[in-house]
Amino acid sequence: MAVIIDGKRISQEIKDELKEKVERLKADGKNAALAVIQVGNDPASCVYVNNKKKACAYIGIESLSYELQEETTEKELLELIHRLNEDEKVHGILVQLPLPKHINEDKIIQAISPKKDVDGFHPENVGKLVIGEKGFVSCTPAGVIQLLKRSNIEIAGKNCVVVGRSNIVGKPMALLMLRENATVTIAHSKTQNLKELCRTADILIVAIGKPRFITAEYVKEGAVVVDVGIHRGENNKLCGDVKYEEVFEIASAITPVPGGVGPMTIAMLMNNCVEAME
Ligand code: GUN
Fold first, then answer.
1. Of 22, 57, 81, 169, which one is least surrounded by beta carbons within 10 A?
2. Which domain holds residue 148?
3. Domain membership flag for residue 163
């Protein structure tokens, strides 16, 4: 039976540390503001954006809300970003993804000043992660590292399999585990013998976007399992990429869904905002 890695508790711990830090920075006359841009009103994005604004309020960071219509042009969005890049009162800029289809996401990400890129999506920040320089790191993978470290799970020297190769999660996740001296393999939809490969993992990190895909057969006895997925399953219940009840029985530690990786993403966004402020 596994120990449950409590993302809710750990994210709260991080937010409380940041709140104290922001209070000290404010006493020194420093203030932080995060510009949050949403284009259109995708229901999931509305929930995420609201949670981000709530976290800002809790920590003491001002959030500047830009709720733009679905029909907003790429040019208009670029103009807003250029304006915010120049605005000294704004420390972080977050453009909620996905964007409407008529807007090129890569172009938008690249328009954000790397110094204000609190999502860590800009190629300059991704490049810094690759070569081990300090820069903003994508929030979800950074949150996974914090979950492991704050649960006293040893990373150095361990075999880590990351299932998924997205720019936002899989790739930065693998690079962060490498930075922590794990031996890292990235698996994806074309990987052969996925089951056998996953069973070599001491730490299995799953971000494939397929509900309850990873069964007990994919997991080595005593492995640590981190589930980055989030889906609405049967009866509208939330579930991850891992078949939790089954894997719980053989893993040594596991993140639940909800209450595992999810809350960590926002905590790490707040961490990046405080770094931008500093
Ligand atoms: N959409 C889903 N996840 C994210 C995220 O981490 N940042 C942004 N900006 N959009 C997202």
1. 57
2. 139-262
3. yes
In a shared domain, residues 222 and 146:
yes
Nearest to 144 by CA among 12, 44, 4, 10: 10
Of 163, 159, 154, 152, give the one whose Cα is nearest residue 187.
163
Q: Is the CB of 95 under 6 A from ligand 1?
A: yes
In this prediction, residue 144 carries a pLDDT of: 99
Q: Total domain count for the chain?
A: 2
pTM of the model: 0.97
Q: Whose CA is nearest to atom 2 of ligand 1?
A: 97
Which residue positions in the chain have pLDDT lower than 70?
none
| Residue 96: active-site member | yes
C-alpha distances in angstroms, 238 versus 147, 241, 261?
20, 11, 13
Distance between Cα 67 and ligand 1 center (Å): 15
CATH of the domain at 245: 3.40.50.720
